[in-house]
Amino acid sequence: MFGTTLNLLPRRAVFLGLVIAEVVRVPLRERMYQAYFPYATSHLADEPGFRFSTALSRRFYFACVHVLHRVGAYREVVDVVRRETLPRDETSVRYALVRSLFELGEFEAARDAASGATNDELCSMTDLAYHKAMVDMICGDEQSALDAMFWACRSSLHFFRPHQNIAARGSMLYRPNSFDVLCGSEGRLFDLCNFTGQRVTHVGRGELGIRLFERALEAQQRLRKSPPPLSAELTQLFERLDVSFDELRLVPEEWATQIGHLGMLDILFRMRELGWWSGKAVIVVRPGLIANAAFFELFKGFGRVLVIGETISERVAEELLSLQRWCGLSFNAFRLPDGRAVPWQDAGAIALEQWEREGRSHPLRDAYDASISDVAAERFVQLCSRYGMKADDWYVCLHTRDAAHYFEFIGTGQTHRNAPIEASLDAIRLITSRGGWVIKLGGPNSPKLPPLARTIDYALSEFRSERMDIHLIRHARAFIGTTSGLTNVAVSFGIPCAIVNAITTDAQLWNANVRFALKPVKLADGTMLTQRQLTMEPWRWRVFDAAVLGRSAAHPENNSAEEICQAVEEVLALAEGRSAAFETGYDTERLLARWKRALALPYFYGPSRPSLAFLARHEKHFLPEVAEGG
Fold first, then answer.
1. Cβ contacts of residue 363 below 8 Å, gap of 6+?
2. Using an 8 Å Cβ cutoff, are 214 and 341 in contact?
3. How far apart are CA 28 and CA 410, in angstroms?
4. Which of 64, 73, 159, 253 lies 20 to 30 Å (CA to CA) from residue 273?
5. What is the pTM of this model?
6. Measured between alpha carbons, how far is 445 from 625 in angstroms, rounded to an integer?
7. 170-188, pLDDT tens digit by residue?
């Protein structure tokens, strides 16, 4: 409510009011800053040069800096803070500058600003100590990073928690166990490098991440040479699971907290089948944090599953999870059979290419078909009856990522991955005109479809459930999606997919049944980023975050209704065995050869390929010829 109200007022007037609230110490001021943050950052994504402060608000120097920092005006913090006065300023000013420079990807400058911090400052402000540790690590100074981590851990025990990925959503309340201490400096570096590697990606500097993730893998390798003494309870647990410490491969919580991550877990176990890793997987999950319990059930045949609070106590689970520093399967990077460490999704895309070359099947689809749910089948019959669909009618599932699911604001975070449902209406009509049905998936707050023949807005119906989501995808003739989690379910099941309005930093785990259309990314002068630019630094990493793109004067454009229809046409032809006839309408061999030459990373989209219509339409600007060796 605070944010909505404040956004109705002139921005500089609001900012001055927030500064005054800081000066007079209004009790709810931090909530006001937090509420206004998405509105401020969204505006800055459109107008990066906008300045909130005025000569009047800057007279209240400390309050002005604090509020600028809290509402996400990072560039303005850098402009306002007077570097020469830092030694005499409040610690909060130094932290505001260090964090702002970090968020802007200016790590050397952030390290310079942090280097003058005294031990008293690091002890009094945990976040400053941790940011100093991160920028020291980025700049290659491990000893200084460990010194800063000492102060961070001393002040906040949650920094002792083992860390691989933010998606684990660990509580700030944490009581360290013996493993958190025994892991020593290598354990601190394991946690720090994993966290910092993600954060540099979030701010558009992912090219630095792989070095940090590789250092985490090295720390784990060193720790594994000296296994820690196990408690009697853990020893009994391993005996019950029939897993020795040498065989143990921990799959921690973050692999299950998002449905897209479960798609990654599918590929992780395919990697084991390919001989890329060995050992016995122990999957640790929290019941309330599993993205889709019905989909997760399919993994129970691939490893031992421990559910915190049900099959294992919280206390023993925390001990077990601390062992991931020794034997956790990395979420961030993977060491290929040839010894190279690459971003995890790069490895996944390479593995998927090998998997399909060898003609292997879809393990999760096989697992689903072996455990068909009578409940889901019965509910499907009820769904058909309600909307007039016959049991043998064919249908296509549709899902578009939208802002409502995460309550996002345009221009911030991952909002550039969203797509308007209106652009898919012509594709819906195309499918229904051919006798098919369209079933729209999504959350209960997803945009409502207008009344359309042979179309079911299942997302807003009483039939919606996790199990039904999976059942509907499994039996669909095709799937239309975006770069979002449910798409990974369809891909895991081998359902032909039209992935439209796609935009990605990560290499994609898409199989040969996928045809995709990317969002064109346009620069300020109207030029379109090429396929080569989008698969190499710096642009590969800049497309991770909408705000980073905005600061880089780059803007993704949604696919047109025509482009979406054309991608759907191609996927229907694929699903119906008509691909050869469909492709005669295009110069297919030449287009695909040119596209492959344009990729900086040949495996970036796995075995999938772009929609032929998309390539033909954007060939001139998207696929410029690459010089030999260029």
1. 266, 269, 270, 273, 302
2. yes
3. 26
4. 253
5. 0.94
6. 44
7. 888 899 999 999 999 999 9
